[in-house]
Queue: 3 jobs
Job 1
Amino acid sequence: MAQIYPIDLTRHPSPFHGGWNPLQPSNDEIQRMCNAVRNEVQIYERRIFQVFRAVQYRTQVLSWTTHFIKVYVGGNEFVHVKVHKDIEKNVHLICYVSGKTGSAPIMYF
């Protein structure tokens, strides 16, 4: 009979390939990624954001790392962006979701 061993997710928050890392406050690297995709999001949204400030993020690690970032864009509005940083450190916008609030959790999209 197989043994089942519990995994302490506080010590190993993303133990499996493809798992989510815990929600973290933004940092300078995450803000740089947001700055890199800001114009592209503005083009798709057909508007200019007065502010585009990363607030929180989580990552998903596969053969690459995908960043899901909550971005404050002014007023009571947030945008969630999904970005990928390639091996050459180029940042790519995968997709985004607009019309979010500050309390909206970062979910897979």
Note: Residues 14 and 21 are 5 Å apart (CA to CA).
Job 2
Amino acid sequence: MVKLVYGNCAGKLFNEGALHDCVPTDDLEQLDFTSKAHAIGDSGSTMNGCVVTLVYENSTEKLMNVCTSSSTNMLSSLLIVFSAFSSACAADLSSEYAHRAVLDPEGQMSLYWSVNWHEESVSFAVEAATTGWVGFGISSGNGKMAGSDVVIGWVKDSQGYLTDRYADSESLPTKDEEKSYFLTGFEESNEKTVLKFTRKFDTCDTRDRKIKQGTTKVVFAYHTQDPTSENDLKMHTFRGSRSILLLNNMEKKEIDETGWENNNSQERHNILLTQKNYVFFQFEASVQPGNEGLVHHFVVYECHGDFNDTHFGAGYDCVSSANMPLRGCYINNMVAAWGIGGEAFYFPPKAGFPIGTSDSPKYYMMEVHYNNPEGVEGRNDSSGVHFHYTSNIRQYDAGTLSVGDASSNFLVIPPKQKSWLSVGFCPKECNQEPMKASTLRDGGIYVFAAFLHTHLQGVAAWTKHYRNGVELPEIARDDNYDFNFQDIQVLQKEVHIKPGDDVVHYCKYQTMDRNDLVVGGLSTSNEMCLDIMFYYPQMKNASSFCNSILYEPISSFIKERFPDVNVSWPNPLPEMNITWTEELATDLRLRMDKAKTIVPICFQVWS
């Protein structure tokens, strides 16, 4: 077993001052990680970024934060604030359906839906700011109208209409003779139209698109006027597309928690941090308005160990600096992950992340990745994440396990490739003993959610599960991966990973738009191949990172093709300025396909 320390972000801590007061409320609370106003771009630079934060749990007098900037990932400071949980009254459709998504930035159209797993069907409601016809469809995976499975409907003279169609081109969709969508309700009022309908996951109609696990790219449109007939539809006056997880098993959660009895907000901070146990059970992003195009994704880590006044000060380059006191946080549990387009995440009723216990971490570190390809300068950012917590302790502590490629520069993808596969292994040896020590009767863990993650070149990702050499049902899959929409998949059925099981994560890439070699790394222009799995019960003294490196194929490729180059660490291939021909790419592909050995990377969490 090879154990490597990975992660070279650097930064220093500085004192942010006392916690803000918080209004006495019930036992259900919200913990805000909000970044201090932070400059995303420096004058004359084109900076993207990554944010890191520490929360000092054992004191209400001091917070420890981190800030840094880099060419691709910049660490910024966060301020932790306590505030009361609040929820707005839901609209009628929000009460009727389990999920809601605003389809366009202007809020002209919204989609509501509920999943019936037993009947394998989905009930939809489309709301549009028009009194004309409304269209909705499921695309072939590219978010374009051509190849989409479409319905168009309207309300006229108090009567609702819905036509099942398919689009072979960017023109009026053809009526589908085999009806698979069924109108269940309609309404037209206040200059809005609502159409309700239902359909099966798999309609067995070759013209229809199956609704599957993972990202679904939907198309939508409307016109300001109703058609005079089913065959006389005028071209849309508004249209768009969006990625959604239609089959995410995230139902609405009813909040039922007991109340606070202490009216002293400062004392309650003391109780929260030192005298009482709590669990996180929900989190969601809070992106500063106007920065939605810059804040791409974040990860929150537990931090163990001690930090002192020498850690206070300015930040460091996240990618290239090797001297950061927070580096150790990267090998601990991730407690949250969010990507652009993601929504609120709820833990299952039986699990949550513990805080306030004697062995829970003193600090949490938040890393936010910014994407700033246009080189925007002088923009400040105060984005963060809200954590909701309760004193009603769950049956199990939750944990996270990152599987896949180690994101080193041994992950390589030649340019001009229509399809390229990367594989990351999580061998059973990484967590064999902690899984045996599990509190579950058969040992191991239950995975209840998965966050699949690549960068710009990724087009699909999936995670396989093996026991005694036999392949079991997949843990998670996304055949339409969208870098600009990343959300956590809540699994329909929790997956039991037992001691001795192997997990293998795959990522599919397309590099037709690249002229240079793509390598693994933290930068948006680099690539990653990870599945961050949320599970319970939390393993003790375990590896929260279970990744691998394919060293042998790269080594043999360089030795045979470029015998004068010494193979070393890091991988010399990215710096060799190779003109990649299809022959070279095919040779490397075959070597990777036939690889027999891996370098496993198991990060030991704090114990």
Note: Residues 1-28, 33-91, 253-275, 312-316 have pLDDT under 50 and may be disordered.
Job 3
Amino acid sequence: MDEQQHHQLVGLAAVTVAAVLEQAYFSLQVISARRKFRVSPPCTSGPPQFERVFRAQVNCSEYFPLFIAILWTSGVFFSQGASCVCGAAYVMARLCYFQGYAESPQQRLRALYVSAGFLWLLIGFSCVGILLSFWRLAGRLQLLNYVA
């Protein structure tokens, strides 16, 4: 990979690293809550305060693979800039979701809807980018058939 290709991917890589660090932070919060509320692994139930932190971390982890896959698909096929902005906003919204859920289940809802909106935007960008790539490919194939 040459230097130009690195520059083309640096934004996506930065958002990915930020999201990975966020996941690590969420895991550390569960460890801290386990100690604070004396909930030993593998138990996943305990005081409501612990369960909220645990559920918030699990919920964020469940969406993480989907987010990473769609972030990169959107960035490669649609626009790295738009994808990075949406990806960074998604990461921030998930942090707000986690913090809100740790306080009370109702406080997670706004951030949940915001993060879902950014995820759907990335999905839309990905679909548009892939569709345009197919159209360009089909156009090239038709041109090759015409020339041949």
Note: The chain has one domain: 3-147.
